[in-house]
Amino acid sequence: MAKHIGVYLTDNKNKTIELPVNPQELKVNYETNDATEEVVKLGEINRIGEVKLRTLSIESILPVTTKNVRYVTASKPLSSAQKYIDWIIAAQKSKKPIRLVVSGTKISLKMTVASFNYGMENANADEYTFTLDLTEYKTYKAEKMKIAKKKGKPRPKPPKKIGRGSKVIVNGRLHVDSYGRGPGQTEHNTIRKVNFIALGRAYPYHVTTLSGGWRGWVKKSAVKAV
Question: Most CB contacts within 10 A, which of 55, 135, 144, 193?
Fold first, then answer.
């Protein structure tokens, strides 16, 4: 006994229908995304691309009522064409993939309803003709990518500007004037205050105690802002 061959569609709610009349032909379209390019001294070449989504087009008929219609091939058809139409349109509107299975073959594909059109031809009020175009659906998932920050040496903080009234740490010999005359005592990690500045001199900063007592002139390299 020959095996029953039927075209089955299953929606995302696991409800399955069998098309009432098998199409005269059913072909799965395999296609690659090839591209032609021109290569110097070789001419045109074919650059083979990735496999595109498989497609399939079904053309058949839907009897207005399936009861006692001798050419119906489905083992358990729905009672009317309108129920098939409603099922297919609902599957398309759901924006969910459906499963196409052709019994007796290895055709089993998860697909989406890309296009569906139907109507009556030749003034035949007993049946609809329809075309159902399906496109393969591949499961995908968007993932949030983390961008790794490059680890490097942290940028050094810019030195604080020193001006009149700035508190500074002094490490250096004191002098009587900004030219470096009259060397005197040496300061070691002492907190002082700048009260005069003579830019361009060898000893441009004059420092005092925090209470204002004069100490002397020092080199630029001898002071550091607090």
Answer: 193
* Rounded (5°) CA angle 189-194-198: 120
CA distance 171 to 173: 7
What is the residue type of 226?
Answer: V
Sole residue written with tokens 């995302």:
12
What value, to the nearest 5°, has the Cα angle with vertex 54 and ends 50 and 56? 160
Residue found under tokens 């993939």 = 97
Joined tokens for residue 56: 């399939």
Contact 119, 104 (CB under 8 A): no
- Chain-centre distance for alpha carbon 148: 16
Distance of CA 195 to the CA centre of its chain: 60
